[in-house]
Structures are given as structure tokens and as C-alpha cells.
Amino acid sequence: MRLTSIAYGADYNPEQWSAQTLDEDIALMSEAGVNVVSLGIFSWALLEPSDGRYDLGWLRQIVDRLHAAGIGVDLATATASPPPWLGRRYPETLPVDQNGVTLRWGSRQQYNPSSAKFREKVAGLVRAMAAEFADHPGVVAWHIGNEYACHVRESFDPESAERFRAWLRRTYGTLDALNDAWATTFWSQRVYDWDEVIPPGPTPTIANPHQRTDWNAFCSDALLELYCLERDILKAANPSIPVTTNFMGLFGALDYWKWAEHVDFVSNDSYPDPANPRAARDFAFQNDLMRSLGGGKPFIQMEQVTSAVQWRPRNTPKRPGQYGLWSIQAVAQGADGILNFQWRQSPGGAEALHGAMVPHAGRDTRVWDEVVDLGARLTDLSAVVGTRVEPRVAIVWDYANAWTQANACGPVTDRVPDIEARAWHGSLWELGIPADFAHPGGDLTRYDLIIVPALYRLTDAHAARLREAVAGGAVMVVTYLSGYVDERGHAVLGGYLSTIADVLGVRVTEPVALGARPDVDGRAEPLDPLTDRVSSVVGTPGANDSVRLVAPDGSAWAGSGLGWSERIAVDDAAVTVVAVFDEADVEGLPAVTVRAHPHGGAAWYVGTSLDARGRDSVLRRTLGDAGIAVPDLPAGVQRLERGGLTFWLNHSDVTTTVDGIDLGPRSVHMARP
To answer: Active-site residue among 132, 147, 566, 583?
Structure first.
């Protein structure tokens, strides 16, 4: 955004209120320290009340008034929610679900991303907005769309099918290449004409996993085309105004690495659940991801809530102090802006009970007091604007990898890359160690410790990057379910992990999933040794949720494995076995290994899903090997650094003293070293 201080504000929807409310809102914004609002996100029906007839004057008056009051506008293109007249007049703009059902208006985001008519109408509105506002001094950023793919990420209409075929032609060039990539020799699926290529609709049994993964990539790209259509119009009108669209954390439908290349700054919507004791670390996960997607540049917290959301089964509010605590946590992790949904709590509609900076009860509330307090505190943080956070630890994340694993038929249905990335990041956060996220195809050599959680799809290019980092002296930890398939999603032959076996010194010869819930035909009676002479003595370790780990000499080892084990072949004498399995079928086999690199790096392999104590044990050792000190902090306390400031954050319910500083429950202290 074109601001020199921390952005503070919210989505503003004055069209929901009478005209005189604007005067009150501007006065309240001044009191709260608000310096920017997102305007017009859901205003298409008012900006274009009928086909081709634009009414922008009312919005211009509001932008003028806000600018005069010193409040910048993150101006939305309003294309996130089409008006009813569009779907009625042009039904081809409406999305069609996998079962052929057309999704109608009456909610939001009811559009078909591939519809040429929809793209035409979007372009018309955006051109009108650009003509009216591109040179307005009050516009500090353009807000394109809103939460792309949140509700509609795909459409199965004929127009989308044709765009899918065109996408595949560009990707593969020939039908022979497509057939090879999709392994269509299996189940007689070979196609001989492009018209035989269709989106992955309902099928009698398991659908082609390679087709589904390509469909995921196509849908992400189709929405990105829609976004870029708007961006290009706005940039042509005034290239100096930055553009963005709001991401949604680790949202699986879009490849945010690719999307991040097309925004001027990354924005995020995040709603951690205050009822979850791990909510602050979930929030930290998203903050680190957003900063990383932007290549380390500051991001904007575009949406959060002051109190409670309205869409969970039970909506608990943030506890006293948490709104400010978590907001400043985001700044410490790289945010240059704290915005909320929304400014004033709506009087009606689907989100009327969603929290806001101005609640239904108005100024005489705890929420308002905390809103004003945070605004005052953020004004003291202008010195950190534009500064970077540069962790020495990276966690590898790849959306294409997550799609491939999710679409695979076996060996488990769990979304393992997501689960493991969150687990390892959470353990680092609990230790007080900041972390970046990194794409496996990017440069990893600037990191001292690299965590590679469940990189199921391991390409030759990714392997080269991992090899390069270890050769440069980095310590790398690769976890289970990595290196099972290649770039096309085809199984790696000769043992999983073969792609980087030269680095790890091990291969996986057989996965051994645990935690199975056995199929039982007939009555599932309890087994009785008196009557079930055979069945009662049959061992079923695969149904166990965990597997014990011990040191190679049989002594205790911190941590257990959860839901998974693997048969690991050690191929290199330089490999040291750190822990072994201590359960039937895999007893005594390697579970955790490490191979030292001649030039100082090291490559660890973890052949199970370690519990928190196991991750903590591995991280303490690998952090030490990487020369990264684990801070000694009291329970509940974080210490973060950015822009020459040290941030002390107490997430606990008790007053804590650290370095002579008394930190009250859910409070923050900021100081220069």
C-alpha cells in the first residue's frame, strides 16, 4: 500500500447504512487511528445496477470524504459477487457443479471462471472503475476480487471443459504426451481425440488421479487469468497504484506461489479459533507463509476479526487482549498492515453477527476499547514498515505436491503434506524459532536448516535444489511419504526416495500405514479367547495408532511415531541410525537416520509421523548442528525481532517476568535492544 505507517482499518460497507452514518464513521475512524479502509468489495449491484449502466458517483463521494479525512482507500473492483441481473440475463456466467447443477444467485461468488461473457462483464466494470478512480489521490491500493475460490473454484460446464482442453494442449502439446502423463494404458483410458478429454466428473469408481491433479492446476490457472484480466486493466490506467487480492492461509485450491508473482503485495485473511489453545501458532503459520510467498517482503493482514466470527457451529470471541496481541504478533512476523472484517457490524445479511471494529453495541464495549488501544500502539511502529524478517530455517511447501498426494489412491487418504507442515512449523514455533516457507524449486542455500515434510511428488529439479543445499552445508530433515512419485505423479521405481538416495543414503522399500480401521464383514463382535480360538490371537499392528521408537541400543528415545512406519533400506555406510522401530513387523528397523555430508551438511530421514516430543528431539539436535540457538523463554512467551525492535508476547493467562519486564496476561511489550 502507498502508506508510510502501519495500515490499520477494515472492510468498509457504507452502502449498508444511511448517508448520515458516514459522518459518524469518519469521526470514529479518527478516534480509533484508522488510516485505510477496503471499500466496495461487494458493491457490484450498486455500481452497475443494470447491464452496462454504471453509477459510480456515490462511491466517488465516499472516497473523496475519506481522503479529505486522511483515510486511504484500498479500492475493490467489486467483482467478487455478481449482481442477480447478470445470472438471469447471462446464465452461462453461472457455475455448474460436478453433478451438473447450476449454482444460482442469492449468496456470493456465483460465477463461472471460464465464462467468456463473465470475463467481458468483469472487464467492463473494471474499466469503468479505472476511468473514475485511477488518478484519485485517496486510492492507496486496488483490491481485485475477493477470496478467489473460497466458494467456487471450478465449473463443469462445456465452456470450462473446452478451456481445460486448451490448457492441456499448451501443457502437453500432443495427445501421446497427455496419454503418457495420465497413464491411460491403465483401465483402457487411452484417448484418441481431444474431444474425448473431459473434466473429472462422476465416474463408476476411482477417477484417474493424474487427470484430477491437472484439473486442480487448470482451475487455479483459470482463476489467475481472471485476476490478471483485472490487474492488466488497472495497471494500464495507472501503474503506480499497487494491486493485491486476499489469500486465505494454506488454502489448497490455488497455487499461491504462482499467484504471488502477480500481486504487488501479499494479503491474507486469517481467522484462528480462540477456543483452540494452539490458535496463536496457527496464526503464526499463516503469517510466516504469507511473508514467504512474497519473497520475504512485508504482507498485509487484510482480514481478521476483533471478536468472534459467525460461521463456526459455536462462535467464541477473542479473549480480552488477544485482538491486540495477535495483531502485533502479525506485525512482528512481517505484516505492514492490520485490517479487519469489518468496520461496522452489519445490520442484516449472512454476516450480521460477525464481529467488527464497531460492534452492534457501539463504543461502550470492550471491543471498541481494544480497537482504539491497538490503533494507538500501531502508530508507534512506523519504524518497522518495509523491514524484513529473515529466518534461518525453512519448511518446504508445494501446492502441486499437495494436490498429487490428495488425488492419489493410497496409501492413505490423510492430507499428509498439510498435516506435517503444520506439525513441524508448530514445533519450531513452540521452541521460539522463526521459519520461512520455501518452494522446493527455489533457492534453498540461504537456509541453515531445511524441513521437507512429505514431499510426495519429488521432481528431479526439486532433488537438485535439496542436494545443492546440503552440499552447501545445510542440515535437512526429510519426513515420511517423500519421494514416492515423480513430476507426472508416476511411482518412483527401485525404492521410494531413490531420487535423493545419494543425499539421504536410504530408500523406502515398503510403506506400513498404521491407525487402520479394519473392514469387518458381518457382525463386529468382541473377540473372546474361549470362542475365537484363532482370531483372538491374530496380531494386527496396522490397527495401532502409534509405534514405539527406541535408540539402536534399545535404550529410551524421546517420542513415538503416529499412524505410519516404513521399511527403510540403508544403502550408505555413512548413514547413522538414530532411532529404530520397536513394534511387531518393523521391530529393530531404522526409523530415523542421518547421513553427514563431506562438506558439513547433513541429511536426516524420518520414516514416521513423529509426535511432538519426537519432533522436539530431532529439532533440538538439528538446530544445534545448524548453529541455531534455542532461546530459554518462560511458558507462554514469544520473543520476536523485526526492524530493530524486540517484541515480547505473553500468550498465557498469568503475569510473567522476563528480562526484568512484567508481561500481563495476553499482553505485548516492545523495546529496542
So the answer is: 147
